[in-house]
Write a structure and sequence with these properties.
- The structure holds two protein chains of two kinds.
- By secondary structure, chain A is an alpha/beta fold.
- Chain A has helices spanning about 15-25, 70-80, 90-95, 155-160, 215-220, and strands at about 5-10, 30-35, 45-50, 85, 105, 115-120, 135-145, 150, 165-170, 180-185, 190-195.
- A nine-stranded mixed beta sheet of chain A has the order 2-1-3-4-11-10-9-6-7, with helices on both faces.
- Chain A starts with a strand and ends in a 6-residue tail after the last helix.
- By secondary structure, chain B is of the alpha+beta class.
- The mean pLDDT of chain B is about 95.
- Chains A and B meet through helix 1 and strand 6 of A and helix 8 and helix 10 of B.
Chain lengths: ~220, ~725
């Protein structure tokens, strides 16, 4: 049975529709749309924090969204072991809430970067990538200004030791200078994933490829794990 | 606070950009001396930017109708039917003057303004483009402007969430003192959900929505109607500051509100802010409007009526609402965190009345404010005709391979990746072709339809012959849409020129409009919206005449499209439209020989149409594997671009003289690649259609080879193509 999902819209979110399209395409089930000012989540298996510029990102990216009314419910949801995915601005929110460690700094090149990169599925020891091939390298777009992942040495060491780096930029395509080429990480339990790239923008041949589908199929349990 | 009873002196009138005879006209119209606020209102309504007083006479000659045109010029944007009850809404607008003064905010608010024009009509924006022109790369201000403008375009569009799918970036010394920032936006709506600015009904609330009013941009439209001189730094306070987050919320709130049936009329506050929007809504609906400025949400203290009426603070809307829906409307705007205030009422008096702190600060006839704006038939002189230079009078290069490498790897031929990677080209998930090809393509709905977008003009051609150059701008846009397989539907024009009070500049404008009109007529691509930007001069030196054309095309079946990348080794390369002969005003002449001389290539509109229609039919029938139009740099550059994009080489043969056949910029031509087993059929059909067609070579290998002329590796071309922009911006 594919998972039921919900996508939270914040003022300034702009990839919530892209995410809903990818989720429905993969699972066959239309995701529930949740407003940032709500305080409860519907009965779903996966909650997604989508990309965009929540509240304009005029403070640190994701900082205001991390304090939105819905976020207490998201924290509870994660604590219960259910799946929380943050993509791009959503990843920034997850670090700002403390659900994931570290921070997303301004890109090393200081400009917004929208291009295709190569991603390596660096770990399958979590509930999102467990249906993917470890070590596989696939195409995926990025579009961000603050994607330069950073954490202190001990945290990075722990992420590496605990096999929590889910995705790495591969073949010299790191677009933002992130430490250890990190593109996505999970929490310890493996039920919260944050990633900068946008697999939701590469799920349809008209988008130039379907490399992003394997990720959603794995995360939504539509392939045998 | 600035009082309203400041004495109106000739100096004050001049500072408002009003000529003495225009002031006389005001006196005759209202029968008394205007108040200070009224003077400001007249200056805002009657400046070139808002009134089109120099260009109106000629703009009226452009073709604006067609079977698919639902709404032509006159509203916030044009509307064109794309079938299935859907329509595309689009427009292009300049933000040249502010961008030169403050590049980031100038460009950002340019993007914001054009997006607002589109969603004011009820459309959700689905694509953006921009045409940018800067001074010579070695001019001291150029790098700063490029960096700021590109960041500003991206900063606004990326946050708002519209994909940028195309554009142009060009460098020329004639833009040293005036850069051009032309922003295009397109949106989608249902044909039964089009919203207009015409107010209807007396006694209805006039509602202010969006961001608060500040002092930013006071007098911006007047500034944009004047030349620059050494006092330019003093104009910085006239540039507005953009807030894409508020704009995104405004978009969502407006679209949500429109669904409720509450909106009678809507107008965004763009140039001249509250003044222009209120007058337009009333005048179009044959109604008066009374504004109560004490109700206007402000973000600064002690703002005078004058400042509020002329503020160009961004992200604001004016609406006339159905009174019974007021509460519902307010609720929606609260939800999105936006200001909502009833600031006025429609009346049956045809007066535009502005009250502030118990005083009537303006009381003017509303129709005359717009309709009686001065309209000039400015004297113009035709541009001198330049001689057509035969190729025999233009030198061949010493080294063909080096020449080709230069043409694909210099300021104007190099890849624009450094620019477009700063734009979100993918958001919304519908981008089928992103920048770098002949036209951007965006999927529409689930039924396999798509729209194609391109913006084009070749200013050096327009400078050399405004009529032919005007034709060429339209033809190239039409050709780019055709080259991806789209049926060109309609276009928008952004006419950037110098000071129209000089007959030679006015002549450029007049002749370019005539050329544009002729081409739009012949190619059935009417102009449905547009913008004129004059006075692009600094200390008496004008820009190259730059009438940018933004075109929209329809693909009924998005799968039947073409890209310019060489696809398969062994494919046969064919040239449609004959070998090149014309080198006058070519990039070869400019960049290799250092001269800009002679007449530009003429455009044969009938041939253009015949060839384009044929190429489109091939694409739609799936009979070609790659297509590219020929433009700057001719066949040589087109082949290089196809090779770079496809990461594979080719071998071709061209007749002598090779500099003309490789780099000639004769118009109306395309390069096609065809699978070997289909070549005979395609060539035969081309001949049957009366077209000139030549099989010139074959795709394959790692080099681009022109037999007996040049061989250069694709990797080397690629390096040359990609390196110029990042190296330049790094200061190398």
């Amino acid at each position: 049975m594919p998972m039921k999902s919900a996508v939270i819209t914040f003022p300034g979110s702009n990839r919530e529709r892209d995410m809903m399209y990818a989720l429905e395409l993969t699972s066959g089930i239309a995701p529930v749309s949740v407003w940032h000012a709500d305080t409860t989540l519907p009965d779903v298996d996966l909650v997604v924090l989508p990309g965009g510029f929540s509240y304009g990102d005029y403070l640190r990216s994701g900082a205001i969204a991390a304090r939105a009314p819905i976020m207490d419910a998201v924290r509870d949801f994660a604590e219960k072991g259910r799946l929380v995915l943050g993509v791009c601005n959503g990843f920034q929110m997850l670090t700002e809430t403390g659900l994931l460690p570290g921070a997303l700094m301004r890109n090393a090149g200081l400009t917004f970067v929208c291009r295709e990169v190569m991603l390596e599925t660096a770990s399958t020891a979590n509930r999102f990538t467990d249906g993917m091939a470890r070590g596989a390298v696939w195409r995926c777009p990025v579009a961000h200004h603050d994607g330069n992942y950073f954490a202190d040495t001990d945290t990075i060491q722990a992420l590496e030791d605990e096999d929590r780096v889910a995705f790495r930029y591969a073949r010299g395509t790191n677009p933002n200078g992130s430490i250890n080429d990190i593109a996505g990480i999970t929490n310890k339990r493996g039920n919260v994933l944050g990633m900068m790239p946008h697999p939701e923008n590469l799920v349809d041949p008209l988008q130039g490829g379907i490399d992003g589908r394997a990720f959603f199929e794995s995360a939504l349990g539509t392939v045998a794990a | 606070m600035i009082p309203n009873d400041i004495a109106i002196t000739p100096e004050l009138i001049e500072a408002h950009g009003l000529k003495p005879d225009e002031y006389e006209r005001i006196l005759a119209l209202i029968g008394r001396t205007p108040t200070f606020t009224e003077l400001g209102i007249f200056s805002a309504m009657w400046n070139e930017h808002c009134s089109y007083k120099s260009s109106k006479k000629w703009l009226k000659t452009l073709p604006t109708t067609g079977p698919r045109v639902i709404l032509g010029p006159g509203e916030n944007a044009g509307v064109v039917d794309i079938g299935d009850g859907e329509a595309v809404v689009f427009k292009m607008e300049s933000h040249n003057h502010p961008s030169y003064i403050e590049p980031y905010q100038g460009a950002a608010t340019g993007v914001g303004g054009i997006l607002r024009d589109v969603f004011t009509m009820g459309a959700r924006p689905i694509a953006a483009m921009n045409a940018l022109r800067f001074g010579a790369p070695d001019h001291s201000r150029t790098r700063h402007l490029v960096s700021g403008v590109v960041a500003g375009v991206g900063g606004y569009g990326n946050s708002f969430g519209v994909p940028t799918v195309g554009g142009e970036v060009e460098f020329h010394a004639r833009y040293n003192g005036n850069c051009l920032v032309n922003a295009f936006a397109a949106g989608l709506l249902r044909t039964d959900g089009i919203f207009l600015s015409k107010a209807e009904g007396v006694g209805l609330p006039v509602v202010y929505l969006g961001a608060k009013t500040g002092r930013d941009g006071v007098g911006g439209a007047t500034m944009a109607s004047a030349e620059f001189d050494e006092t330019i730094e003093e104009k910085r306070p006239t540039v507005q500051v953009g807030d894409p987050f508020t704009e995104k919320c405004l978009l969502e709130a407006c679209l949500e509100l429109m669904k409720t049936g509450a909106v009678v009329a809507i107008q965004d506050m763009g140039a001249a802010g509250l003044t222009c929007s209120a007058v337009e809504m009333g005048a179009k609906g044959n109604l008066g409007v009374t504004l109560e400025l004490d109700q206007v949400p402000v973000r600064e203290e002690r703002m005078s009526a004058y400042e509020m009426m002329l503020s160009e603070s961004q992200e604001r809307m004016l609406m006339v609402l159905r009174p019974d829906k007021e509460a519902e409307a307010k609720e929606i705007f609260r939800k999105w965190g936006l200001d909502f205030a009833i600031v006025g009422v429609t009346t049956d008096t045809l007066r535009f009345i502005v009250n502030h702190q118990g005083e009537t600060v303006a009381d003017l006839p509303i129709k005359e404010l717009g309709d009686e704006a001065p309209e000039y038939d400015r004297p113009w002189s035709p541009s001198p005709k330049l001689e057509t230079l035969p190729a025999s009078r233009i030198a061949e290069p010493d080294d063909y391979a080096a020449a080709l490498s230069t043409l694909v790897g210099n300021a104007n031929g190099g890849s624009r990746r450094w620019v477009y990677e700063q734009y979100d080209t993918l958001v919304q998930g519908n981008t089928v072709a992103s920048p770098g090809g002949d036209a951007g393509i965006v999927r529409v709905g689930d039924a396999g339809k798509a729209l194609a977008f391109s913006v084009d003009v070749t200013p050096r051609y327009v400078g050399a012959d405004p009529f032919e150059g005007g034709k060429q701008a339209v033809a190239e846009c039409w050709r780019n849409l055709t080259a991806v397989g789209a049926e060109p539907l309609a276009s928008t024009d952004n006419l950037n020129f110098g000071n129209p009070e000089r007959p030679e500049i006015m002549g450029q404008l007049v002749e370019a409009i005539k050329g544009i009109g002729a081409a739009c007529e012949a190619l059935e691509m009417p102009i449905v919206s547009g913008n004129v930007s004059l006075y692009n001069e600094t200390s008496g030196e004008a820009i190259l005449p730059t009438p940018a054309i933004g075109g929209v095309g329809l693909l009924d079946d998005v799968n039947a499209r073409a890209s310019l990348a060489f696809a398969n080794d062994g494919d046969i390369i064919a040239l449609i439209g004959g070998h090149g002969t014309h080198l006058g005003q070519s990039t070869y002449q400019r960049d290799i020989l250092g001269r800009e001389e002679g007449a530009p290539p003429p455009v044969d509109l009938a041939a253009e149409k015949r060839r384009g229609d044929f190429v489109r039919s091939l694409i739609r029938a799936g009979r070609v594997t790659a297509v590219h139009d020929l433009s700057d740099g001719g066949l040589g550059v087109a082949l290089a671009e196809m090779a770079i994009a496809g990461a594979r080489g080719c071998t071709v043969e061209v007749p002598a003289p090779a500099h003309a056949t490789l780099f000639g910029e004769d118009q109306g031509r395309y390069v096609l690649t065809i699978a070997p087993d289909r070549v005979a059929g395609v060539l035969e059909d081309a001949l049957d259609a009366g077209l000139e067609v030549a099989e010139i070579g074959k795709v394959g290998g790692e080099s681009l080879t022109v037999e007996d002329i040049l061989t250069i590796s694709v990797a080397k071309l690629d390096e040359s193509h990609e390196n110029w922009f990042p190296n330049y911006m790094a200061g190398a």
